[in-house]
Amino acid sequence: MRSLFIFLTLLFLGGSVAMAQPDTISINLSNVSYPYPVKFLHLQQDGQHIRMAYMDVKPTTPNGRSIILFHGKNFGGYYWTNVIKTLTARGFRVIVPDQVGFGKSDKAYIHYSFHSLARNNKMLLDSLGIGKVTIMGHSMGGMLATRFSLMYPNRVEKLLLEDPIGLEDYRTFVPYQSAEDDYKTELKATFESVKKYYATSYFTQWKPEYDYLVKIGANVNKSTNFPRYAKVAAMTFEMIYEQPVCYEFGRIKVPTVLFIGKEDKTIVGKALLTDEEKAKHGQYKILGPETAKKIPGCKLIEFDNCGHIPHIEVPQLFLKALVENI
């Protein structure tokens, strides 16, 4: 009988992960093993009781600093393992939340906004007694980290953005779809379609060690609760589309480092575009430098032959750059 649990064999070199795959993954990833113990913060929003999952990883020898990691839309805390190990080895306390609607957190039917997600994370830090914190956000997490830094600048020591989405306003060139339209699209997701999207959107070259990302991201579609998962995914797509941060980069007041994979071509809503439109947008080798100029005092670090997830695709280079600039 196949195990109900996914066992992640974490290989620190290269940040790669191997794992066994269950036939079905629950929409709250209850049968996915995370690298460190998971706790829950209890929240109230829109008249609902909601659980927000997080890992709180403390170093053996503390340096007195804390960092919080914000994941991307199609991910959860499970893909930060090599980053967590690197940072805790250097004395950082590392907080790794699954945002509400993602990972092991509840898939609530609420109004999703970057403002409310930022407030949730402030409440998490308050509950842990953490004052100032460095924030690192990847992909969608970069939009959230930007919003958090704008809302609570006095709480942010440093802002680290890893291939954030939202460097351009998708509303200006991606055709509008309602949440109901997006929901119908999400329901059609298959293992093959998810793998194709990850392979063509996230990496310059697919490697077997990336398969675990697809297995987690795709096998939720076998859950009896998958329609709920798909609905929330559509609602958070709408959040990204309707709540740009690119016009506010000039208002950031905290030291910022922007990490960019030069071959990243991520566009939210890419499937709705013509080939001509795809070629005009999502060019991070152009968007990275343009964005760095908008953020006061921003330092830009670029990685050749790298796509959307530098901490997985070029882990040694990324981790070296991270520890030198945190």
UniProtKB/TrEMBL annotation:
* Keyword Iron annotated: no
Under the cellular component aspect of Gene Ontology, which terms does the record hold?
Answer: membrane
- Hydrolase recorded as keyword: yes
Signal sequence annotation: 1-20
Per UniProt, what is one Pfam family of this protein?
A: Abhydrolase_1
Keywords of this entry: Hydrolase, Signal
GO MF entries: hydrolase activity
- Top-rank taxon of the source lineage equals Bacteria
Describe the location of the AB hydrolase-1 domain by residue ranges. 67-313
Q: Which PANTHER family match?
A: HYDROLASE, PUTATIVE (AFU_ORTHOLOGUE AFUA_2G14860)-RELATED, MONOACYLGLYCEROL LIPASE
Q: Could you identify this protein by its name? A: Alpha/beta fold hydrolase
